[in-house]
Amino acid sequence: MATKAPTTTSSGIDKASQKRAPRDVQRAPRSSATEAAYTLSAAREAELLREAESLGDSTLLFPGKLARRVIWASRIQLAAERDAADLVRTPFPEDEPPLTREEIRGLRDRVELLRVTQSRWQAAQQRQERAAATFAKPAAEAAEHRQTLLRFFDLRFKKSPEGQKRLMAIRAGHGDADLVQDVSDLLLLCSEHAEAIDKAPRGEAAAVARLRELSPLLARIPEAQRSRKLRDAAYTLVVHAERRLRAAAEYWYAGTDTMKDYAPFPVSRGAASTGGEEEGEAGAEDDGAPDEDESEGGAPDAGDQEDAAPGDVAPDAGDR
């Protein structure tokens, strides 16, 4: 009986696994296992939070893709550490501080702050959704006490332009977040006129006491807004740090393959070849839900796999 020729079976090597990774991915520095477990000290986190808050409204909206963004920034930081001997000698303009090894290492801290603030924002958003269901009743009660106290201060500030201006600012607010601020402003005003409040005959002292009890409940609503603003500020710190490293690398390595290690995070898969950089424009903002390639059990598609170099550390469960 003739020997049957061997045939290829389904257990053979998958052709897709034989595809070569893009050249820029092959060259990219890779994260180490120790980086996955990296955490900020309390003192360093507080320092970075102060820096983030100092940005005010000059922040970029975080557009999502946290896991991929963390890996990308980590690769830039590792490339900068590799090239630090050159980068720290970059002749930046006089109105910019010189680049230091400490600043290069500091990108790692900024990336970790982004991870932390994103997690806190998602947790705050979940708490806000639960709190919103029970917000209506205390908000209505707070509005009644607000009117009681405004009536008292209308009379007290009848001949005080400065006092009337403060009352106008309180009345100008609308919506849940403004109600929270109104309560805070009113309580401050009441503390400045505590003796007169205590002597008032129409329940003003009781209104103040009740507003103090309601204030923590009401404050839960804008919590997610504050958390999101901090998250966006942390993201802005990462982008600014990357741009400094990229500018230094351009000085030393423009036109060479080394610049591929400093490429900006692409706006989309198609932007990777054009050098386009995400800017966090309105409308592209992360909605808080895990991305498909970051959600538990979800596998990244082929385009996403090309963004992560083989050997890169996958984000831990806290990032998903």
Automatic annotation (TrEMBL):
Organism classification: Bacteria, Pseudomonadati, Myxococcota, Polyangia, Polyangiales
Lineage: superkingdom: Bacteria
Biased composition, class Acidic residues, residue ranges: 276-296
Organism: Sorangium cellulosum
Biased composition (Polar residues): 1-12
Protein name: ATPase
Composition skew (Low complexity), residue ranges: 310-320
Region (Disordered): 1-36, 263-320
